[in-house]
Each structure stands twice: as C-alpha cells, then as structure tokens.
User: Which sequence fits this backbone?
C-alpha cells in the first residue's frame, strides 16, 4: 500500500465515521452473537430467529448508507467482519449443536466449512465488487445461506419433527450451501432498477396474494422461498450451459484464427 493511500485513509478516520449505517451493522453483529448465546443455551428456535433478525439488519445497513450518502470503506469492512460472525460462525454453530453433533468429526467439519466458505465468499465479493455487475451475485450470498439454515430449523419445530428426523439430509444441505457460496453460480441480487418502476396491475394483485399466503403459513413459505432462491442458481447455471459452451467455442475459434494470421 502506497504512503499516499495510507495517509488518505488515516485522514478519513480522523474525520470520524458515519454512525447510522454502522449502527445497523452493529445490530446485525449483535443478532449473530445472540444467536450463538441461544445455541449454547439450547434454545435453537430463538437462535434461528436471531439469524433472520441479523439478515434484516444486514439488508438495512447498505440501503441506509446509499440513501443517506454515508457509504464508506470502513463501513464495507465492518459489514464483512460482522457477516462472518452472523452468517458464518452463528449458523455453523447452530447446525452443529442442533443436528450434526452425532456425526462427530464429520458434523463439526460441516459447521467449520460453512464458516470458512462464508469468509471466502465475502473476501471474494470485496475484491470483485467493482468488476462484477450489480444485478448478479457470484456465489450464494451469505445472508441467504444463513437464512436457509434458520428456515430449516424453524420448519422442523413448526412441523413437530425432532432434529434427528433426517440428520443425513441436514448434513448434505450444509455441505451444499457451503459449496454454493464459493461457486461461480450466479444469483439475482434484486438490484435491477426496473423492479421499482411502473409494473402492470396484475403484479400488484400477485404481490398481495403472495403476502396473504406468507401470513397464513409464514414458516413454510419462508422455507419455500429460500429453497427456491437457492435452487434458482444451479438451475439457471444448467439452463445457460449450452449457450456458454457455444460462446466459448466461438471465442476460442476467433483466437485461433488471429494466431494463424501472418
């Protein structure tokens, strides 16, 4: 790092930091920590709810920063560190204590893999944030992965199933979520400006019906929404695979033609 860049960052720190967006980030970090406290105390349903609360705070801090013009490099780094705790360590510990402990080493390795893949996903996001289109995430976002963990726990409690009901499926789910976070599978970020523009009247009717269904069965619908979002990445990847292969062949042929020219 150059001396000029270090000097600029120090000057920025002397001027202070923005309080409002970082308070939301601190709220997300608190929710993640309290999730771990509830997990240690054996209150897994409460722990799952605190993960959802952390996801809400995490979604708000960035929006508040953009709306108020208070985005900063400090806020970005603080947000990433908070996400490692709230969406890596907290869900990893929750799943190990709730369902994976009987697997022994395979169980705690699954929890650790969820943590390390979340950290790697966030590090890659920070590096690629200026080069990747904002409408797509590369890899499963960490809040979505943690929320899927939360929705799974809540679904088991809602249906009255014990955590031993299908531990193998839960173990496979954790490994699947971890690998998706560090994959090149793309996910919709819902940051497309066209989403907030005028839409047909039928869209409003569908949105109202969706809200009614969610209000009727919130736990089941929450699980369904997250499982559909997570599946959308691999499905989209497979559907666009032939087109990408054709494009790669065309580009490779073009490079070969250029090399063959005198």
Assistant:
């Amino acid at each position: 790092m150059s001396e000029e860049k270090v000097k600029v960052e120090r000057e920025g720190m002397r001027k202070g930091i923005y309080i409002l967006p970082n308070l939301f980030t601190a709220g997300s970090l608190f929710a993640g920590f309290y999730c771990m406290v509830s997990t240690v105390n054996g209150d897994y349903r409460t722990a799952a709810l605190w993960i959802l609360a952390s996801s809400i705070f995490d979604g708000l801090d960035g929006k508040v920063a953009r709306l108020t013009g208070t985005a900063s490099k400090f806020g970005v780094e603080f947000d990433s560190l908070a996400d490692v705790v709230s969406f890596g360590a907290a869900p990893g510990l929750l799943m190990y204590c709730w369902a994976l402990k009987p697997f022994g080493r395979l169980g705690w390795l699954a929890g650790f893999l969820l943590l390390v893949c979340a950290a790697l996903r966030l590090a890659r996001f920070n590096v690629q944030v200026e080069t990747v289109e904002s409408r797509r995430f590369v890899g499963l976002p960490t809040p979505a992965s943690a929320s899927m963990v939360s929705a799974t726990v809540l679904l088991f409690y809602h249906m009255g199933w014990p955590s031993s009901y299908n531990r193998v499926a839960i173990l496979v789910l954790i490994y699947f979520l971890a690998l998706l976070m560090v994959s090149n599978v793309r996910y919709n970020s819902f940051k497309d400006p066209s989403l907030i523009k005028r839409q047909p009247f039928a869209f409003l009717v569908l949105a109202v019906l969706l809200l009614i269904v969610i209000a009727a069965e919130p736990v089941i619908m929450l699980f369904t929404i997250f499982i559909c979002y997570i599946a959308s990445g691999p499905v989209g990847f497979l559907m666009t695979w032939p087109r990408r292969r054709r494009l790669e062949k065309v580009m490779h042929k073009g490079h070969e033609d250029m090399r063959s020219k005198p």
